[in-house]
Design goal:
The protein is mainly alpha-helical and 196 residues long. The protein contains 5 helices and 3 strands.
Length: 196
């Protein structure tokens, strides 16, 4: 049986010894009355209910939580969608608007794919290469859109509630959808009339 460390007895008061606290034991947050703890899990990519040890139902501990916050007990759990349509349809503009400027690299990739498709249609390039380039670009855009809400919300969580973030992303999705349609229409017009 392991011995328990105790403090010295106070000779003046005769108080019983109390166990020493481990200085390396983490101080876990506790919910206020009428509130509960929720966390935004990095592995689940969503808000999860937390127990007293700050673990979610899947067994992810507090280190897997990007954010731990209080939520009233009667309020439903926040939900941030796993897929961001604005980031999928126009990654360069959505990324630049959300502090992810690296997504601008898709502009030259789109031009390359457009040129490969045009050349394949006119017999100047391999249709297989054009298809591979198109599929690869779409897969990259899909993967980016799956991680976009996590990265975007982590950047905005100090300024916006989850509801405000989701509402803003709906507006971004509509705007990026309109812009993507205009861009495809322009590229089609350009390829049919000017490049012929």
């Amino acid at each position: 049986m392991a011995e328990q460390k105790v403090t010295k007895v106070d000779a003046r008061t005769g108080a019983a010894p109390t166990p020493l606290k481990d200085p390396f034991e983490p101080k876990l947050p506790k919910a206020s009355p009428g509130m509960r703890l929720v966390g935004y899990c990095r592995q689940c990519r969503g808000f999860q209910e937390l127990d007293k040890r700050c673990e979610d139902a899947a067994g992810h501990d507090r280190h897997a939580m990007a954010i731990i916050m209080e939520l009233p007990k009667d309020k439903p759990l926040y939900h941030i969608p796993e897929f961001n349509w604005g980031a999928f349809l126009m990654p360069p503009i959505w990324g630049a608007g959300h502090g992810q400027v690296f997504a601008v690299v898709l502009y030259p990739i789109w031009l390359m794919v457009d040129n490969l498709i045009w050349a394949a249609i006119h017999g100047q390039a391999s249709p297989v290469l054009a298809c591979l380039a198109l599929v690869g670009t779409l897969v990259f855009m899909f993967v980016y859109a799956r991680t976009a809400n996590y990265m975007g919300y982590m950047r905005a969580y100090t300024r916006k509630s989850p509801e405000e973030y989701v509402a803003g992303e709906r507006r971004w999705a509509v705007a990026m959808g309109v812009l993507a349609a205009l861009m495809v229409a322009f590229a089609t017009w350009y390829n049919l009339t000017l490049r012929g």
